TrEMBL record:
It comes from the Eukaryota. GO terms for molecular function: flavin adenine dinucleotide binding; N,N-dimethylaniline monooxygenase activity; NADP binding. It comes from Xylaria bambusicola. This is FAD/NAD(P)-binding domain-containing protein. Keywords: FAD, Flavoprotein, Monooxygenase, NADP, Oxidoreductase. Pfam families: FMO-like, NAD_binding_8. InterPro entries: FAD-binding_MO, FAD/NAD-bd_sf, Flavin_mOase-like. Its cofactor is FAD.
Length: 500
């Protein structure tokens, strides 16, 4: 679509030695969001030129970064997997290596691997009104490279890959053993025979706890407040029958729809009948506990289900560990201080440890710590309104991909990919070059927080995040079935200002 290529040096000065490659769309990140977007561009807007810049040396995003023991999905993979290449296995929950293999096989099958540039760490992106393009600077092999694109897509997720969230844990600096954050698990660390403390109550802690207990001398989960942990069968005769009866694509598609609607019904039930949902979920956890661990205070959360994310325990492995492993335990309350060889709770309980795992959340960050400017002015994510869960107020031709907090990430990512491809076709047909979300003078009838969970790490990040409105295209995505219909067929022009 572009007839000229600008010649630039690595420092941005014309010297005739290097060329800034030009694309219609430049995607940042080769995780599930970036790969899905690339496929949609390839199939729905044929002839569009695009590339994916990935700062790491492999695909996978989250699944390439996190390597802690037992890492697995906490969403079912029938909805987390790609709609166009359904998850081919019977078990809906799988370990990280199998998910990475699935992603690698998928990009090879569809030729998307040819569009990925590894070890290209994007440093900055600047929109220039004069040329109506983004200038993207990336670091590669110790040098900077420049790219230009009509559109830029941030498939960078919602957290900082380099810096983990640091919760305030009193006295942690006193500990003489090893302190590990799951985001940066040491490859050479062997937890066998060790006394382990896991601090946290989210999905990572619930995953680590049974895995560590298999070989560690002792594992104690320390939580300030309990979470809802839902046990679910990872094997099912019905799923097995469907996948044997139908071809993989049709079985996977049917299961995707069933799982999407089932979880959405659960979320709606929790929203409209919060106290009943709390009672039911607490009653489901209690019978799975050993007699030595009472439900109160360890398994009676104070919050309503889905105001924080529910934790999944495939085949009830978390509760099975508590029942069958005398080396496993759980403490609920406030830490008084970490000591040289463990920690002491405010109630006086002490626990010894060789290692402390701080599974306390992620450091939330939009845009992958990339410096973004619009016509030379720094673009701040904080406080900007989000258009259709896909674009930012007053920022031209920029898509960012965000998933759901109460459903599989990929469902939301795919809605955004559909919006992008439809916008490209619409603008190409009308000869339009830019699209900018503009908030109407009447406003958006109030505001909503962007990350609609109340976890500590999300509360800490709220001041850095954009926000939603309460009306029109400024509302958040909350219903996967309806959002899919909107992404495919709904209004994608209201709220945008187009120029030719």
């Amino acid at each position: 679509m572009f007839s000229t290529i600008d010649t630039m040096s690595t420092n941005g000065l014309p010297n005739g030695t290097r060329e800034a490659e030009v694309f219609d769309v430049l995607i940042i990140g080769a995780g599930i969001s970036g790969i899905n977007t690339a496929y949609r561009l390839q199939t729905q807007v044929p002839g569009t030129t695009f590339t994916i810049l990935e700062g790491r040396g492999d695909i996978g995003g989250t699944w390439d970064l996190f390597r802690y023991p037992g890492i697995r999905s906490d969403s079912d993979l029938f909805t987390y997997g790609f709609q166009w290449e359904p998850w081919p296995y019977e078990t809906p929950i799988a370990k990280g290596p199998l998910i990475r293999d699935y992603m690698k096989n998928t990009i090879t099958k569809y030729g998307l691997d040819h569009h990925i540039r590894f070890h290209h760490k994007v440093l900055s992106a600047d929109w220039s009104k004069s040329i109506e393009q983004w200038k993207i600077t990336a670091e590669y092999d110790g040098h900077t490279k420049e790219f230009k694109a009509r559109w830029v897509v941030f498939g960078t997720g919602y957290y900082d890959y380099e810096n983990a969230f640091k919760a305030t844990i009193p006295g942690l600096e006193n500990f003489k053993g090893k302190v590990i954050h799951p985001q940066h698990w040491p490859e050479d660390y062997d937890h066998s025979g060790k006394k382990m403390i896991v601090i946290g109550s989210g999905a990572t802690a619930v995953t680590l706890f049974p895995t560590l207990s298999e070989t560690a001398e002792a594992v104690t989960l320390v939580q300030r407040s309990p979470s809802y942990i839902a046990s679910a069968m990872n094997g099912s005769p019905v799923r097995s029958f469907l996948m044997k009866l139908l071809p993989t694509y049709y079985a996977g598609t049917l299961l995707r729809v069933l799982y999407m609607y089932r979880l959405h019904i659960v979320v709606l039930f929790c929203h409209y009948f919060p106290q009943l949902a709390r009672t039911i979920m607490t009653m489901q956890m209690t019978p799975q506990l050993p007699k030595r661990i009472p439900p109160n205070p360890h398994f009676e959360p104070s919050y309503i289900p889905w105001t924080q994310r529910l934790c999944l325990s495939p085949d009830g492995d978390f509760f099975q560990t508590l029942r069958e492993k005398p080396n496993s335990n759980i403490l609920t309350g406030h830490i008084d201080t970490v000591t040289e060889n463990g920690l002491r709770m405010k109630d006086g309980t002490t626990v010894e440890a060789d290692a402390i795992v701080t599974a306390t959340g992620l450091h939330m960050q939009m845009g992958g710590n990339i410096a973004i400017t619009v016509n030379g002015e720094k673009m701040d994510w904080a406080g900007r309104l989000v258009w259709n869960g896909s674009m930012l107020q007053d920022v031209p031709n920029m898509i960012f991909i965000i998933g759901y907090t109460n459903a599989a990430w990929t469902l939301g990512a795919d809605d955004t990919a559909h919006i992008l491809t439809r916008l490209l076709r619409y603008m190409n047909s009308g000869g339009m070059t830019t699209a900018v979300p503009r908030v109407p003078p009447s406003g958006t009838n109030g505001y909503q927080r962007f990350w609609q969970l109340t976890s500590s790490y999300s509360n800490e990040a709220e001041k850095r995040l954009p926000k939603y409105g309460n009306s029109g295209p400024w509302r958040p995505k909350t219903s996967p079935p309806l959002d899919w219909l909107h992404g495919k067929f709904g209004d994608i022009t209201t709220g945008l200002h187009f120029t030719s």
